[in-house]
Specification:
The structure is a homodimer.
Chain A: H1 6-11, H2 32-40, H3 44-48, H4 51-65, E1 69-71, H5 78-83, E2 87-90, E3 94-97, H6 113-116, H7 118-130, E4 136-142, H8 144-153, H9 161-169, H10 171-195, E5 199-204, H11 212-233, E6 239-243, H12 250-253, E7 261-263, H13 270-277, E8 282-287, H14 289-294, H15 296-310, E9 315-319, H16 329-347
Helix pairs in contact in A: 4-7, 7-10, 8-9, 8-10, 9-10, 10-11, 15-16
Chain lengths: ~350, ~350
């Protein structure tokens, strides 16, 4: 008999399984064991490309908190790196990229994705070997729009103005870049699935800065294409879409046949999300990482509101954005215990 | 016979008057005449507190573009300055404030608002004298939440984390600060109205970073209180609320009896905004400032979409956020001509 993975059950639409629980950026700087390994690992991309270290980092939060899912430790910018655009990380400043030549980016080469990212696929295999059967392994990529914002500007930018401006000024060229990233994302996710991930999540962190029709072109249409291609090749793998900062987009996401899960962000209205998505998609979210950091009443109220809002539907407990480095471990332990107790009390699992 | 002001007519719910047109930050750095005056004026706050210069700056865009409304040239941070918290502006870095002592901010004194901000009220009187009768003068303040984010952190911050964290950690104290700012905003707006503004707008630029229930406490409840107090004292003055980054909040704003207008931001869905607000509130927005900067097809499509979406309802054409300093004057001229031609063709005015 196959052991059930609560994360996969929830993504199959079950609302009576144990409420699965994981946290965005759960392998990260709030963990002392991560900081220790990080300090020894050299630069950040080398850590992403070291299967033994990346697998260890991926497993750390599972050992400590018994989360229901591990998420591959990597970065969304390994894709431009694999395409041939130079990427590096400056401590305290975030990612830097050699800015794209907007007049000629024909050098970007999707032919190198599989070979360049082979170490990531190797990480997936190693994590799988270290995970119990009831735990899911989540693979991921950045959505084309979000990755493009960094490729265009060479760094994170306020409201993603450089990429949005280029998209207005030369829609054809920008559309070619999005197409390249859509194709690259499909290849990359397929590689992760073939290496063993159980679920994939597509992160569109900067969807919220786009005007409505731009969001349709640069976020929703690529999400439809990627999820379609993944589903055709791997119909058994559930897909979670996470478009941050654009709550109304859930109405459109509810209609995308090839995704099973919708990640909702910190600022999203719980009633609206449930009314829009419940019965159609599995909802994942949305505790404010600052409430987790603060603890106390704010944390209790935040957890209660989410469990009351989503507890009776197909649901995955998560944060609404990545966990913050300053978060006390004890607050995470408290969160886990509280969600587990609620699940046991209301679902018997 | 009184000359009609299209902005006021639109805020009274009229959908057959000339479509009123103004732009957030219309008095600003994209204008050569502003940059010239700015260079001569000394520091930014001195400019805000100089009635002759501030009035001149307020009127510059009306002379150049014949907009339907002038908006008082000032800054949302004159309120903390008037309350006794030191505020200054560093060129290229934005505002700086002596960070608030979270354990003791009893020194903040609403008793000084009227005297400290007397030069702003004087600016209002001067602008009124220089405006034709068909032009409206808009007064404004920052909403308590948005102003508080700067007061707590001492500067602009990523996703307003310091203020959000404090609100979680010490809700009572934060609530006291919001109450002070609510009271200060009421006094300040009343002063502007008594000096002659025709309409007031309350800017909550950072509403979008808050979780749903926090937004209710820190944005919507203060907006209800401020608009109630203003309406009681000045029932004839229309009020526009602008909560940026939280499109679902329009459902709540549609129910606030004391506001007439709802500003909608760049990322907002046009159909949703119309369905939620039309017939209840006058809609104001929402061209992407980057589309105005880009010009060409992006600008045409952006204007067309807005006019088609809102042209038949009570509506004020505006940007979805402030105009950017790099915006070509010719693009603004094009925008004005296009909106005027549409209004003439569809409304005969």
């Amino acid at each position: 008999m196959t052991v059930k993975k609560p994360l996969v059950q929830a993504l199959q639409g079950k609302s009576d399984c144990q409420i699965p629980l994981w946290m965005m950026r759960q392998a990260g700087r709030y963990l002392p064991e991560y900081k220790k390994l990080r300090a020894e690992a050299g630069d950040f991309l080398s850590l992403c490309y070291s299967p033994s270290l990346a697998a260890e980092v991926t497993l750390q939060p599972i050992r400590r908190f018994d989360f229901d899912a591990a998420i591959l430790f990597s970065d969304i910018l390994v894709v431009p790196d694999a395409l041939g655009q130079r990427v590096w990380f400056v401590t305290g400043e975030g990612p830097k990229l050699e800015p794209l030549d907007q007049n000629d980016f024909s050098g970007l080469d999707i032919g190198k994705i599989n070979s360049h990212l082979a170490p990531v696929f190797e990480t997936v295999s190693r994590v799988k070997d270290g995970l119990e059967d009831n735990k899911a392994l989540i693979g991921f990529c950045g959505a084309p729009w979000t990755v493009a914002t960094y490729m265009v500007a060479g760094e994170g930018t306020k409201e993603q103005a450089p990429a949005r401006l280029w998209a207005y000024q030369d829609e054809q060229a920008f559309s070619r870049l999005i197409d390249i990233l859509t194709e690259a994302s499909i290849i990359y996710l397929k590689g992760q699935i073939e290496a063993g991930v159980d679920v994939v999540q597509i992160f569109d962190s900067w969807a919220g800065s786009l005007a409505e029709n731009e969001r349709e072109k640069w976020c929703l249409e690529p999400l439809r294409k990627i999820s379609r291609a993944i589903k055709e090749a791997h119909p058994e793998i559930p897909i979670i879409g996470f478009l941050r900062g654009a709550p109304l987009v859930y109405q459109e996401m509810a209609k995308i046949a090839d995704i099973e899960g919708v990640g909702i962000d910190t600022a999203s209205d719980i009633d609206f999300a449930r009314e829009t998505l419940s019965g159609k998609k599995t909802i994942q979210g949305n505790l404010d990482p600052l409430a987790l950091l603060a603890g106390g009443d704010a944390l209790d109220e935040g957890i209660d509101r989410i469990l009351e809002g989503f507890g009776e539907t197909a649901f995955i407990f998560n944060l609404g954005h990545g966990i913050l480095p300053e978060t006390p471990i004890a607050h995470v332990e408290y969160l886990v215990a509280k969600v587990r107790a609620y699940s046991k009390a209301t679902r018997g699992a």
